[in-house]
Amino acid sequence: MRKPITERIAQLDPQQDCQEIIFLLTYHVFPWDIERALEFALFRTYAIPAISSLLAKTGEFIKRPRKRYDDTELIMSEIVEHGYDSDRGQRALRRMNQMHGRFPISNEDFLYVLSTFIYEPIRWLDRYGWRSLTRNEQLACFYFYREVGLRMNIRDIPEDFDQFEQFNRNYEQNNFVLATSNRIIAKVTVNLFLSFYLPRLLWSLGRPLIYAALDDPLMAALSLPCPPAFLRKMVTGTLKLRGKLVGFLPERREPLLGTNRKRPSYPEGYKIEELGTFSKDGYR
Questions:
Q1: Which residue intervals define the domain ER-bound oxygenase mpaB/mpaB'/Rubber oxygenase catalytic in the entry (predicted)?
Q2: From CA 23, how far away is CA 254, in angstroms rounded?
Q3: What is the chain's percent helix, strand, coil content, to nearest 5?
Q4: 10 Å Cβ neighbour count for 282?
Q5: What 8-state DSSP symbol labels residue 240?
């Protein structure tokens, strides 16, 4: 089947046109896969005690996980949908920087989280997508999020795709460390994701399915129970089969925008400047 949007992307320059490429990949070509990849990327950031302990200390994610999830997704969707130099993109970046600026987050932690936005979707699509990203598409992801990082005032962002990926792997190897806060935040996140799809009575059945999509070093750092091998094989096999079947479908003609989705946190809509947390929420 002809894939006109993929053909369009192939004609674009990965650096100069990275904003258009990311928009097309995220909302036309791989809307489900990229969203799932970024959801599971959250678990990787929670395996870093410096990150999970901050989330546990503030208490906001534990008390209102759905709102914090919606805040993050809406801010990032504004940037991806409108571009980082647009009015809405700049306002979203400003709101994100205001939130982060209140906390003692290290530059290396910022670098690592930024890297997950690049490499986790690439890895997910390698494993489960109807196709892998081309090299130019991978580079577009790198150039897009590198520009986002520069606008977040993150320092020492590698200028090379492979160099940044090596940083990502080294950082995980050195910083995936077991901590109580890792498990606390991971369990809250598992329950949040289960709430998207299942009634509470079925959560105990759904948890092992989520665990089966996580790799062993991550499971160990989060202190989560390893699922049986057959379940992991079933989950990964199902995801791979889904990818093959999606390959027979046409690409979306209309974008599946994240900002258009109805969210319980904002039933009446939202203003960018009101997203996220503020010092009045009880912590600084």
A1: 56-229
A2: 12
A3: 70, 0, 30
A4: 11
A5: H
Check: CB of residue 239 under 8 Å from CB of residue 213: yes
Smallest Cα–Cα separation from 45: which of 109, 123, 122? 109
Burial of 267: CB neighbours in 10 Å, binned 0-12, 13-18, 19+:
exposed
The pLDDT profile of the chain, 284 residues, written as one tens digit per residue, is 779 999 999 999 999 999 999 999 999 999 999 999 999 999 999 999 999 999 998 888 899 999 999 999 999 999 999 999 999 999 999 999 999 888 889 999 999 999 999 999 999 999 999 999 999 999 999 999 999 999 999 999 999 999 999 999 999 999 999 999 999 999 999 999 999 999 999 999 999 999 999 999 999 999 999 899 999 999 999 999 999 999 999 999 999 999 999 898 999 899 999 998 876 554 44
Write down the residue that tokens 């002809």 correspond to.
2
Round to whole Å and give the CA distance between 250 and 117. 26
Cβ(152)–Cβ(115) under 8 Å? no
CA distance 84 to 151: 8
The token pair at 17 is 């046109």
Token pair listed for 154:
């993150």
Owner of token pair 């590698």: 158
C-alpha distances out from residue 56 to 45, 128, 156, 244, Å? 13, 32, 28, 39
pTM above 0.90, yes or no: yes
Residue with tokens 């969203």, as numbered in its chain: 35
| Nearest-angstrom CA–CA distance, 90 and 118 | 20
How many angstroms separate the CA atoms of 127 and 112, rounded? 21
